[in-house]
Design a protein that fits this description.
By secondary structure, the protein is α/β, with parallel strands linked by helices. Helix content is 65%, strand content 9%.
Length: 713
C-alpha cells in the first residue's frame, strides 16, 4: 500500500509520465497479447476518458480553455485502435474478449445478432456521416476564417494600444489569445481527420472479426457453423459497440468545442438556457403550438398540455400586466368606468418609470396621460427608432433612441419633446382626427372636409381630417399622419435641428476608432495635429448646419492640411466645408442640379463684417436694433417672394443665402436666433458643377442708405 501511494504521488507531480505511460502501453498492446481481465481495465479507462472529455467540453467557458483537445484526440484515437487490436487478438485466439465486450454482446443487444448489427450501423452512421462530417466542415471553415481575420484583429489590437484604451500587458495577452485561437482551429481541422479514419477502421475491423472468427471457430476449434456464427458475431458486435461509443463521445466533444461561439464567460448549458429563454415571445408562441398539437385526435393530450404550460411559465409572463389588460378590456366595454381605471393605473406606472431614470436622457418624448392611454406606443417606439437610425445614417453617427415618458396631468392629448429635460416644443393633438400631409388643394378635389389648426408639419396651418375619412384618404392617395406619425415627424425635425448636441467627446472618439480601421495612417496624423477636443468642436459645428460626416476621409485630410497653420476652430470648420462643397451643394440643389439662392452684395458683406466685434470670449455680430430689424424684414420679404413649392414639399426647395466666408457663420447665427433655418453658404462652399440661380439679392439699400452704414461704423 505504501508503494502504491508513493507511485500515485510521483504520477501527480509528473503528469508527463502519465502520457508517456499511455503511449508505451499503446505500443505494447500492438505487439504483445494481453489477458482478457486487463483488456476490461483498458476498455473502462477508454470509456472514462471519453465521458470526462465530453463533460469538460460542456462546462468550458471558452474553447481556448481546452487547447490540448487536438492532442487528446490523437492520443485517444491511437489508444483506441491499439485496444481494438488487442480485443481482436483475444476474439480470434480464445473467443473470450473480457466481461465488458461479452456484456455488450449479450445484455445491450439482448443476444440478438440482427439487433446488434443494426445498432452498430446506426451508431457508426451517426458518428461518421452526421457528427464527424459536420464537425470537420465547421473546423475547416473556422480555421479559414480565423486565419483571414488575423490581420484585422492584429490591427485592432495595435489601434487600441496606440489610443491608450489598453496597455502593453493587455495587448500582449490579446495577441497570445489570438495566436492560440488560430492554432486551435488549425489543429482541430487536422485532428478531426483522425476521428474520421477511426470510424473507417472500425468498419474494417468488424468485417475481419466476423470472417476470421467464424473461419477459426469452424476450422481450428471444431465448432458447428451455427455455434461459430453465434459466438463470434456477438463478440464482434460487442467489440464494435464498445469501440464506437467512446469514438462517438469523442466526436461529440470535438463538435461541442468547434461549434462554440462566444460564450460570454458561461458554460454551454447555461449559455444555451439563457439564449433559449431570452425571448419570452418565442416561448409563448411555442406553448400555443404545443397546445394546438395536443388537440390533434390521437395525440396524448396530457403530455402536450403539460409541455405547453411549462413553456408558458418559462416565458415569465407579467401576471399583473395581464390582469390589467383584462380589466382594461372590460372597462372599454363599460365606458362609464374607463376613467376610473386609468386614474388608478397610470400614475403608478408613471412613477415607476420616473424612478428608473438614473440620468437625464438626451432626448425624451413626454406624453400626457390621456394621449398615452390611446396611443400605440409600440408603433411609436418603432417610428422613433427608425427616425433616429435614418438621421444617424444621413449625418454619419448614431443617435440614441428617445425615452418615452408619461406626464401626470389631466390635460388633453398633448406631448412635448424634451432636450436634456428641457422642453423644446410642445403640441396638442386632436382625438379621432388625422393630420393631412399633402397639398390642401388635393383634399378639396377629393371632396373631403378638413379643419384648420396650428402649424405642425410646415409653416402653413395644419389641416385635420376626421379618422372616419381614412379610407377615402387612402383611396385618393393623399398622405396623412396619425398621432404616432405626428410625434415621429416632430421628433425627426427636432433631432435634426439639435443634432449637434448629441456629438460630444465620446461620440467623436467612436467615430475616430471606426475610421481608423480603414485609414489608420490618416487618422493617426489628423489626431496628432488636431486633438480630439478640437476635432469634436469642428464636427459639432458641421453637424449643427446639417453637414454629413460620412466622408470622414476627406474631413481628416483637410484637417491634416490646415491643422498646423489654423488655430481657430471656426475657421477650421470653414476649411472643411470648403472641402465638402460638392456634398453640401448636392444637399440643397434641385432636381436640375441648380441651387436657388439669395445673394448678399459685397457692400452688405462689408457692412456686416465691420459690425463683428472681437472679445476675449469670442466674436459676435453687433448690429444696431434698427439695422437688425431692417435686415430681418429684407430676408423675410425675399424668402416670401422666393419661387418654389409650398406645403409639405417646401423643405426640398428652400433657398440658400450666399455671403463671404468670414461673415457666413455670423449671418447663420443671426438668422437662427430669429427663427430662420435657411442654409447659409459662403462662396467657397459652392461647387462648380452646381450652378447658383440668384432669385434675389440684399444690398445696403435695405439699411436706409449711407447714413445708417456710417452710424454703424
Amino acid at each position: 500500500m505504501k508503494h502504491l501511494t508513493h507511485f500515485f504521488r510521483v504520477m501527480s507531480q509528473r503528469q508527463d509520465l502519465a502520457l508517456v505511460l499511455v503511449l508505451v502501453l499503446t505500443i505494447g498492446m500492438l505487439i504483445m497479447p494481453l489477458p482478457a481481465a486487463f483488456a476490461d481495465v483498458l476498455i473502462g479507462c477508454n470509456l472514462s476518458l471519453s465521458v470526462l472529455l465530453l463533460m469538460v467540453a460542456v462546462y468550458l467557458r471558452s474553447p481556448l480553455d481546452l487547447t490540448a483537445l487536438p492532442g487528446m484526440i490523437l492520443v485517444s484515437t491511437v489508444f483506441r485502435l491499439a485496444l481494438e487490436v488487442t480485443v481482436t487478438r483475444l476474439i480470434l485466439t480464445t473467443a473470450d474478449a473480457g466481461a465488458i465486450v461479452e456484456t455488450f454482446g449479450e445484455f445491450v443487444i439482448g443476444g440478438n445478432i440482427v439487433v446488434g448489427l443494426v445498432v452498430f450501423a446506426i451508431v457508426t452512421t451517426v458518428q461518421f456521416i452526421v457528427v464527424t462530417k459536420g464537425t470537420e466542415r465547421v473546423a475547416e471553415v473556422g480555421a479559414r476564417f480565423t486565419l483571414d481575420a488575423m490581420p484585422g484583429k492584429q490591427m485592432s489590437i495595435d489601434s487600441d494600444l496606440r489610443s491608450g484604451d489598453i496597455d502593453a500587458i493587455e495587448a500582449r495577452r490579446r495577441r497570445t489569445e489570438l495566436a492560440s485561437e488560430s492554432a486551435l482551429h488549425g489543429a482541430m481541422d487536422g485532428a478531426l481527420k483522425f476521428v474520421k479514419g477511426d470510424a473507417i477502421a472500425g468498419l474494417i475491423i468488424i468485417v475481419v472479426n466476423l470472417v476470421g472468427g467464424i473461419g477459426i471457430g469452424v476450422a481450428q476449434h471444431g465448432m458447428a457453423i451455427g455455434q461459430a456464427m453465434q459466438t463470434y458475431t456477438l463478440l464482434t458486435v460487442g467489440d464494435a459497440l464498445i469501440s464506437q461509443i467512446p469514438a462517438l463521445l469523442l466526436s461529440i466533444t470535438a463538435a461541442v468545442v468547434v461549434t462554440r461561439v462566444g460564450g460570454h464567460g458561461m458554460d454551454l448549458g447555461r449559455d444555451m438556457a439563457t439564449q433559449l429563454t431570452a425571448n419570452s415571445s418565442a416561448l409563448r408562441v411555442a406553448s400555443v403550438v404545443l397546445l394546438a398539437m395536443g388537440l390533434i385526435p390521437g395525440f396524448p393530450k396530457p403530455v402536450f398540455l403539460i409541455l405547453a404550460a411549462i413553456f408558458f411559465c418559462g416565458s415569465r409572463p407579467d401576471w399583473k400586466s395581464l390582469t390589467n389588460r383584462v380589466f382594461r378590456r372590460s372597462a372599454q366595454t363599460h365606458p362609464g368606468e374607463q376613467d376610473d381605471i386609468f386614474s388608478t393605473a397610470s400614475p403608478a406606472g408613471q412613477t415607476d418609470t420616473t424612478l428608473q431614470e438614473n440620468f437625464t436622457p438626451l432626448m425624451a418624448i413626454t406624453l400626457s396621460q390621456k394621449l398615452s392611454a390611446i396611443l400605440d406606443q409600440a408603433r411609436l417606439s418603432r417610428l422613433l427608432a427608425r427616425a433616429s437610425m435614418e438621421i444617424g445614417n444621413d449625418l454619419g453617427f448614431q443617435f440614441p433612441p428617445p425615452t418615452l415618458r408619461q406626464r401626470d396631468d389631466s390635460g388633453d392629448l398633448r406631448f412635448s419633446i424634451d432636450l436634456e429635460d428641457v422642453p423644446i416644443e410642445e403640441h396638442e393633438l386632436r382625438r379621432d382626427f388625422l393630420l393631412l400631409h399633402d397639398d390642401p388643394v388635393h383634399l378639396d378635389l377629393a371632396g373631403i372636409e378638413g379643419e384648420e389648426g396650428v402649424a405642425l408639419l410646415t409653416n402653413d396651418p395644419s389641416l385635420w381630417v376626421p379618422s372616419a375619412s381614412e379610407g377615402r384618404l387612402r383611396t385618393a392617395g393623399l398622405g396623412f399622419y396619425d398621432h404616432a406619425g405626428i410625434i415621429a415627424f416632430r421628433f425627426r425635425a427636432a433631432l435634426r435641428r439639435h443634432a449637434g448636441r448629441f456629438l460630444g467627446l465620446q461620440e467623436t472618439r467612436q467615430i475616430v476608432q471606426r475610421v481608423e480601421t480603414q485609414y489608420a495612417d490618416l487618422t493617426r496624423e489628423a489626431t496628432k495635429l488636431v486633438p480630439v477636443q478640437r476635432l469634436a468642436e469642428v464636427l459639432r459645428r458641421l453637424v449643427e448646419e446639417d453637414v454629413s460626416l460620412r466622408n470622414m476621409r476627406l474631413i481628416l485630410e483637410t484637417l491634416v492640411e490646415w491643422g498646423e497653420t489654423e488655430n481657430k476652430v471656426p475657421m477650421l470648420a470653414e476649411h472643411v466645408r470648403n472641402a465638402l462643397s460638392r456634398q453640401i451643394c448636392h444637399r440643397y440643389a434641385t432636381n436640375h442640379r441648380a441651387i436657388p439662392a439669395i445673394v448678399l452684395s459685397q457692400a452688405t458683406d462689408q457692412f456686416l463684417r465691420q459690425s463683428v466685434r472681437e472679445t476675449p470670449a469670442g466674436s459676435f455680430l453687433a448690429l444696431e436694433v434698427d439695422a437688425s430689424q431692417k435686415l430681418l424684414e429684407a430676408v423675410r420679404e425675399r424668402l416670401a417672394n422666393a419661387p418654389g413649392k409650398s406645403g409639405a414639399e417646401a423643405e426640398t426647395t428652400k433657398p440658400i443665402i450666399v455671403c463671404s466666408v468670414d461673415t457666413r457663420r455670423f449671418i447663420r447665427g443671426f438668422l437662427i436666433r430669429n427663427g430662420f433655418d435657411n442654409p447659409v453658404l459662403s462662396y467657397q462652399d459652392l461647387a462648380d458643377e452646381f450652378p447658383v440661380h440668384p432669385i434675389a439679392s440684399i444690398g445696403t439699400d435695405v439699411f436706409g442708405g449711407d447714413a445708417v452704414i456710417a452710424r454703424q461704423q
